[in-house]
Design goal:
The protein starts with a strand and ends with a helix. It has helices spanning about 50-60, 100-105, 120-134; strands spanning about 1-10, 15-20, 25, 35, 65-80, 80-90, 105-110. It is an alpha+beta fold.
Length: about 130
């Protein structure tokens, strides 16, 4: 499983995604030639996403509760190595943790700044933005 990490400003609804040096999925890039399934295959067994959420908080140096899972978003990506589930987590802080992003070699971007991302990441961003904006 991979996570997309986003921040939605509570007062203005401005949405920004954390873009790492390798791309948008935490904490490693999606394989080359990946594509998002239009009709995801059924998953027999899946670990609860909370495990990945707590692991991501630890990797980012956040306190417990620093990320929240967005239940309305779930995607499956077809890769040469098999199917990867992608979930969306949002930072719970009032403002995006810009210093954290910088320390990781990344930055927060608006969806309009995602030009040049691979097609699979662009589609994931589109779906994630739709889920966040309702």
């Amino acid at each position: 499983m991979r996570l997309l990490l986003a921040h939605k400003q509570k007062t203005s609804a401005r949405v920004r995604f954390l873009r790492f040096a390798h791309g948008l999925s935490a904490f490693e890039a999606l394989p080359t030639l990946s594509s998002v399934f239009e009709d995801p295959p059924e998953h027999r067994v899946e670990l609860h996403p909370g495990i990945y959420l707590r692991s991501a908080e630890a990797a980012l140096g956040l306190e417990s509760g620093g990320l929240a899972l967005e239940a309305d978003f779930s995607a499956s990506v077809d890769t040469p190595d098999g199917t990867i589930r992608v979930r969306l987590a949002t930072f719970t802080s009032i403002d995006p943790p810009f210093e954290l992003a910088e320390r990781l070699g990344g930055k927060f971007i608006a969806i309009t700044e995602a030009r040049g991302c691979p097609p699979a990441e662009m589609e994931l961003l589109r779906q994630a933005y739709t889920a966040l904006m309702g």
